[in-house]
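User: For a reading group we're discussing how well predicted structures match intuition. Take ABC transporter permease. Before you show the prediction, I'll give you the sequence so everyone sees exactly what went in.
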Amino acid sequence: MRLSFKIAARFLLSNKSQTLLIVLGIAIGISVQIFIGSLIEGLQTSLIDATIGRAAHVSISASDQNKPLKNSDSYVDMLTKDFNDVTGVSKTINQGAFLASDELQMSVVLKGVSSIDDNFIYDIVPLITDGGVPKDRYEVLIGETLADELDAKINDEISLFVPGKGDKMFTIVGFFDFKVENINASWVFATLEDVQAFLGFEDDEVSVIEAQLKDPFLADEKATQVGELLKGKAATVTNWQKENQQLLTGLAGQSTSSFMIQFFVIISVVLGIASVLAITVLQKSKQLGILKAMGINDQTASYIFLFQGFLLGLAGGLLGILLGIGLLYGFSTFALNPDGTPVVPIVLNPYFIGFSGMIAILASMVASLVPALKSKSLSPIEVIRNG
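Assistant: Thanks. Here is the predicted 3D structure of ABC transporter permease, as structure tokens, for the group to look at:
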């Protein structure tokens, strides 16, 4: 096999321009595969993060949507103790309200959340652009869009009115930016205790228990398990996958299209290598005939082209990985949003990149099977006789 390897290397070096073209062809194919695959993965990650990055994966609420969920602490204990893959739980109250400031009035969503300064679900603190989190009674955070509409400033007061519950004055202590216009224009955050007091809820009454998981795509499975534990209780469970079927369908379509593009890129690479190496058999037929006449057996002759395929795949794969990563960094550098962030966040998955490199080697070796078999069947007498 060592002899086959040496001869394969010499054959490749004897026609450097042809070898370079094959390596570049493999590299371009692999770089396109890495670029498209990573771009689609980054797009999917961005879409998922925008949809559920700061939202519940699994939610428990009262069966009667017009009533609060009682005994909320027992549900929190169930989620944190019985499910190891739950990463965070929040007790939340969601209440539609009317906001009044001077002569302006609009509908908003009043959200009372537990541990507002370190809430795992909403992670509000990094999103605060001015001011801080509520510390004293009846203080709120509002979105930048809502603040602009109200021409509000820190320490301004707003009135929130809930039909059947009356109105209450709240002090603005900060502004947030969720990067989502609808949220910035309608959400108002307050402490859970203040909203409970405003609405007349007991200490253990909330609208919903929200939980996030290590793997968001297990939400449907975990929601089913939670539902089994909720049987006989006045509570119901839902999850983000059930509520976002169109998004999941779109993600599946993206994955399928990405796979098809990558598949045909690899097929084109395989066909290109096979055709070039098949021509190489003809070009080197005289040398092969002489080698066989000198005692090289058919198996050793076929190994020459298998090693050629391996070397071409290795070189093309490594170069393709470098080109692919370069394309990704180039895209993230020049394709930017107005705020300077990449249009699509780039995800460099080392497993996918390594897998792409392995595909280059395997595809090249598969492509070399045809010329390897062809060289195996060469008759040294006929080759030398016919030139």
